[in-house]
Design brief:
Blueprint (H helix, E strand, L loop, with lengths): L2 E10 L1 H8 L6 H16 L10 E12 L2 E6 L7 H15 L2 E4 L2 H16 L4 H4 L21 E3 H5 L10 H7 L13 H6 L3 H26 L4 H17 L3 H11 L5
Parallel strand pairs: 1-4, 4-5
Antiparallel strand pairs: 1-2, 2-3
Helix pairs in contact: 1-2, 3-4, 7-9, 9-10
Length: 261
């Protein structure tokens, strides 16, 4: 079975803001501030934009396939949003993986839906519900309660919003590195500063935390026994050791620096 744990990072879609609010003369930074202000007026507190007003800056993944594990960000730092989305759905088309996310039903997938709609990205395998492939009738990507997409936050909270927990806290409680003091709240500032690599690196560590929690989830479900779980954990460690990317070495060092999985 192919497993694809993924995460996205987003920024305000300032072009959408200009269209909706008729503020063509504002800079990107000022437009983002206006969008945040309007959202705060709507909610009374939160500035977090509604799903259709996000633009995807990075998509990162951990792919478990055959005997191998791969950790990467889709496309290149200079890839546009359409290419990132197309690559994501091309991967679904090619591998038909079990998608694994943290709050994917609540955020990542709705954003991907709206942005794919915006760019006209075809994704027939992703949207399949059994008309062309009967195996998707009772297990597809779009049904919240099916396993072809496993939203760990959703499942572990028994589909109750009041019982949901942050990725960072669950990862740390399980002995994994978590976000290591970083936050998605800084992504827009990093994007404006041209720090795309930093955004992609952060996104990869979120995908890694998600995958590691999934392994523990599979142990809890009985789909992995203790020995199988340890083999999967060691594969992650070995993959990180073999990488020549500093942020992944930092993740491994934080993991091995006192927290046991």
């Amino acid at each position: 079975m192919n497993i694809l744990a993924f995460d996205i990072e987003t920024i305000p879609d300032v072009e959408a803001g200009r269209r909706l609010y008729g503020l063509d003369d504002l800079s990107d930074a000022d437009m983002a501030r206006v969008m945040a202000m309007k959202r705060r007026e709507q909610t009374g507190e939160s500035e977090f934009l509604r799903h259709h007003l996000h633009r995807i800056a990075a998509i990162s993944a951990v792919l478990r396939r055959g005997d191998a594990l791969r950790i990467w960000s889709l496309g290149e730092p200079g890839s546009d949003e359409r290419e990132l989305i197309q690559r994501f759905f091309d991967g679904v088309e090619k591998y038909s993986p079990t998608l694994v996310s943290w709050n994917g039903c609540g955020f990542d997938l709705p954003v991907l839906h709206y942005r794919a709609l915006r760019h006209g990205v075809p994704a027939p395998r992703y949207w399949e519900t059994g008309a062309e492939d009967q195996s998707f009738r009772f297990n597809n990507y779009v049904n919240r309660y099916h396993e072809r997409h496993t939203d760990l936050m959703d499942v572990l909270s028994a589909y109750q919003a009041r019982a949901s927990a942050p990725l960072d806290e669950i990862a740390v409680l399980l002995g994994f590195p978590g976000k290591m003091g970083r936050s998605g709240a800084h992504v827009w500032d990093q994007y404006q500063a041209g720090q795309i690599d930093d955004i992609r690196n952060y996104c990869e560590t979120d995908a890694l935390n998600t995958y590691l929690i999934y392994l523990r989830y599979e142990l809890m479900r009985g789909n992995l026994d203790a020995a199988g779980y340890e083999r999967e954990i060691e594969l992650v460690r070995a993959t990180l050791r073999s990488c020549d990317r500093p942020h992944l070495h930092g993740f491994l060092n934080a993991w091995e620096g006192g927290r046991a999985a």
